[in-house]
Specification:
- The protein is α+β, with helices and mostly antiparallel strands and 192 residues long.
- It has two domains: 90 residues, no CATH class; 97 residues, no CATH class.
- The protein is built from three helices and twelve strands.
- Strands 4, 5, 6, 7, 8, 9 and 10 form a seven-stranded antiparallel beta sheet that branches. The protein has a five-stranded antiparallel beta sheet with strand order 1-2-3-11-12, sandwiched between helices.
- A hairpin with a 4-residue loop joins strand 6 and strand 7.
- The longest helix has 25 residues.
- 18% of the residues are buried.
- The N terminus is likely disordered.
Length: 192
């Protein structure tokens, strides 16, 4: 089985390109390949760093919260965000499934890290603020997650690589994914 997985990984020596319904693409490296119930699945990581833009909204006079923005708002602010990041020699890209930046992200500094709470109020994702800007008196920040972003894809019957977003399918894959991520972590620790 290991030799089969190794052969599959060698097949993906170059990046895999995913596309969304708008025609945008995302170039990803294959981190792992595995088979479940006769279907080949891939664990993918974007080649460029994934980022997100969040807005600072006023809750009251003294408090603000970070909120997601919609596509219409992103259309308005994208050129500004792109210009702000270009000052750091970063190229902002409107890729499929996530925004990405090409270039070397700034070194992580403790005062630039925020922790987003999940729905239960527990610490969820840790993000590094890499830039802040304003548009029509509204503050925005561009963040890069500290942990890698992974996408899951499968080879369809026509041979095309398709992203997996179906909740039931992802739940079925979860035990395999968790086991493989633990193995990858162990491999990285052994390499150090």
């Amino acid at each position: 089985m290991l030799s089969v997985i190794w052969a599959i990984l060698l097949m993906y020596d170059s990046p895999v390109i995913l596309a969304d319904e708008t025609g945008r693409t995302l170039s990803c490296e294959v981190e792992d390949a595995f088979e479940v119930n006769g279907t080949e699945y891939l664990l993918l990581e974007p080649v460029d760093a994934a980022v997100q833009i969040l807005a600072w909204r006023d809750i009251d006079e003294d408090e603000q919260e970070l909120t997601d923005i919609d596509e219409a708002e992103l259309d308005l602010i994208f050129p500004i965000a792109k210009a702000v990041l270009s000052e750091q020699n970063l190229i902002l890209k409107r890729t499929a499934f996530t925004l990405t930046v090409e270039g070397e992200l700034p070194e992580i500094e403790e005062d630039q890290i925020i922790e987003l709470d999940d729905a239960e109020g527990e610490i969820g994702e840790e993000l590094q603020e890499i830039a802040q800007f304003y548009y029509q008196e509204q503050a925005y920040s561009i963040f890069a997650p500290l942990d890698p972003i992974y996408l899951y894809a499968k080879r369809a019957s026509n041979g095309k690589i398709e992203p997996v977003f179906d909740v039931e399918e992802l739940e079925e894959l979860q035990p395999h994914i968790q086991q493989r991520l633990l193995e990858l972590e162990d491999e990285e620790e052994d390499a150090e």
